[in-house]
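To: structure desk
From: M.T.
Subject: fold request, one chain
Message: Could you run this one when you get a chance? Sequence is below, nothing fancy, just the single chain.
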Amino acid sequence: MAEPSFKRILLKLSGEALMGSLEYGTDPARVERIAAQIHEVSQRGVEVAVVVGAGNIARGLDAAAQGMDRATADYMGMLATVLNALTLQDALEKRGAHTRVLSAIQVTEVAEPYIRRRAIRHLEKERVVIFAAGTGNPFFTTDTAAALRALEIRAEAILMAKHGVEGVYDADPSEVPDATFLPEITHRQAIERGLRVMDSTALSLCMDNELPIYVFNMADERNIDRIVCGERVGTLVSSDGAPTRVEEAAGRR
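Reply: Done. Structure tokens follow.
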């Protein structure tokens, strides 16, 4: 197998990635497959951090959140990410992985509080670190949390897992059947064209710090390992003129 091109990555999982074919909730079989992919990459010496969303639970909360104060609804979403983080942790530990859940809001009975140096130390000890509760603040998405945590722990890339699409398109493929797939784009282009990569706050953070984003389809169980090994999979979102790990790996060969 190819040598990993990355030492430390952050994987952003949407809540929808945990749903499988369900309308909302968590599909245990899907969670087990995701855990298998993460564990396999971790065993190859790559330090893996994960930020998980809550779209699978939020769909069930939509009716309850109607008319609710935005900040209150966002805190409910943060708590939902804790549920997903614990679900993923359990699946990983059943496979023999060593994990830690670090939460941006205090739930000390089930997770450690987020402390940057502690998170980095867990990664150095080859533990899979799962970040829960977003940034801990309302009005910020888990996309922004992924960008922020990736920069704080000095991850070399964000792997942005998508549900049902291969990467980034020039339009929403669910609304425009002949939307064009984009194998590569810059952060600035994604922001200016309003493409659905991450929210604009997260994209701006990545652009300002030249942090590449690999957007890929989570349904293919080989994709995380392929990206980590330097293969071009899905869409690469990078800064203007910045060399990518794929290009660096090709140069070493």
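Reply (cont.): The domain at 8-252 is CATH 3.40.1160.10 (Carbamate kinase). Let me know if you need anything else for the meeting.
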